[in-house]
User: Fold this.
Amino acid sequence: MVKEKQVRSTAAKQHIREILSKSETAMSQPEILEHSEGICDRVTIYRVLDRLLHEGEIHRAVGMDGITRYASCRQCDHDHGHQHDHLHFSCEVCGEVTCLEKVVPVLKLPRGYQAREASYMISGICPDCG
Assistant:
C-alpha cells in the first residue's frame, strides 16, 4: 500500500502564501522578508519559495533589473501542464513587476524545437507612474 505524500504546511509557508496572494505585483525575496513580520528569516523564505514553486502554487519572473520576483498562480491551468505563458510588465519608474494574465503571447518556434519554459517580460511605464 502506497501512502499519498502529504504536503508539509508550516506557519512560514502559510504566511508567505498569504503575503503573495494579497500582493497585486510580483515580490522579491527581500520584499517578502520585509512583510514577514519576523515570522521567518531569509533562508526559510528561500526554502519556502522553492517548495511553493515545486508545488505549482507560485511562479517566478526575472525583471529587467535581474531581480527574481515571485507571484501567486491565480489563473494557471493546472490541468494542462501548469504553464505560465502570460506576460510580465516591469515598470521603469517604480520597479514593480506585474503579471498581465489576460495577455497571452503567440510563439511559433521553427520545426524541431520544443518549448518547455518561457519568460515574457515587457519594460515600460505602468498606469500608476504614467
